[in-house]
Design a protein that fits this description.
alpha+beta, 2 domains, 4 helices
């Protein structure tokens, strides 16, 4: 099985790519993901998985740099839906996104 690339986040907020043995930034992680590389980001001090938090930061930076990819209405609906304790929501959102993409590029 293809293991995700391990990125460690240090207390100084720096990200370290354990495969390339170098520090990286959010744009580097974004490029890895765009190239189809699975990533896993963990806090160095606690080994806590913070991948989702980092991915949200990447989306936020894309919003600033590339213009809005998620509308205010979509984000508002997502927040409202997430507060309803709907365990099937993540799978339905992922399925909807996959069906909208021209090629299957998303990986768990």
């Amino acid at each position: 099985m293809n293991e995700p690339r391990l990125i460690r986040k240090y207390a100084n907020r720096r990200l370290y790519d354990t495969v390339r043995s170098r520090y990286v930034n959010l744009a580097d992680v974004r490029n890895l993901i765009a190239d189809g590389v699975k990533v896993k980001v963990v806090e160095q001090s606690t080994s806590r998985d913070i991948t989702n938090s980092i991915l949200l930061q990447i989306i936020g930076s894309m919003e600033r740099d590339d213009g809005a990819i998620l509308t205010t209405a979509f984000l508002t609906d997502l927040i409202r839906s997430a507060g309803r304790d709907d365990p099937g929501l993540p799978e339905r959102l992922q399925s909807a996104l996959r069906s909208a993409l021209p090629t299957p590029t998303l990986h768990q």
